[in-house]
Task: inverse folding
């Protein structure tokens, strides 16, 4: 496993549409392991493959620090409600902004064994699913921010970035 370099806003790779994963290979498994390690090292709650420069439809999410989800070719199939709150992104370091998202999301995806599964989430998990899936289509949360982006203090360990 290895920590990969996180691409930042302004890097073209973050604006591209990612390709579906058609088979699990040792190389893709290694990418997923590296994405998890990179996310944890950066204290993030989610990371999408384009954030490490790979245009594949893969995201990792862990809102609690002990319950990682790997979603391959994910699709949102149901949403309800609404939540408005602060959001950050590892590709937009030191910033945060207010974004409105659904409060409930159901997604379908493939796991690391390319087996389909469903993931339902509310609140932070619902927000993370929406945020990470946007990355796969080349979108950053800053496009959806209501009001200004604000500076986030780096010594706030509690800050969560996706
Ligand atoms: Ni992000």
Result:
């Amino acid at each position: 496993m290895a920590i990969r370099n996180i691409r930042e806003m302004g890097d073209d790779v973050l604006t591209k549409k990612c390709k579906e994963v058609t088979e699990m290979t040792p190389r893709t498994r290694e990418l997923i392991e590296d994405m998890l390690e990179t996310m944890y090292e950066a204290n993030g709650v989610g990371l999408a493959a384009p954030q490490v420069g790979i245009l594949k439809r893969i995201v990792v999410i862990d809102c609690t620090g002990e319950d990682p989800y790997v979603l391959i070719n994910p699709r949102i199939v149901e949403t309800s409600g609404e939540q408005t709150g602060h959001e950050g992104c590892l590709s937009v370091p030191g910033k945060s902004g207010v974004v409105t998202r659904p409060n409930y999301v159901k997604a379908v995806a493939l796991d690391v064994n390319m087996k389909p599964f469903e993931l339902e989430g509310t609140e932070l998990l619902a927000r993370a699913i929406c945020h990470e899936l946007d990355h796969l289509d080349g979108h950053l949360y800053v496009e959806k921010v209501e009001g200004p982006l604000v500076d986030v203090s780096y010594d706030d360990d509690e800050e969560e970035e996706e």
User: Anything to note?
Assistant: Residues 89-91, 131, 135, 162 surround nickel (II) ion (CB under 6 Å). The chain has two helices and eight strands. The helical segments are 26-41, 123-136. The longest strand covers residues 69-80.
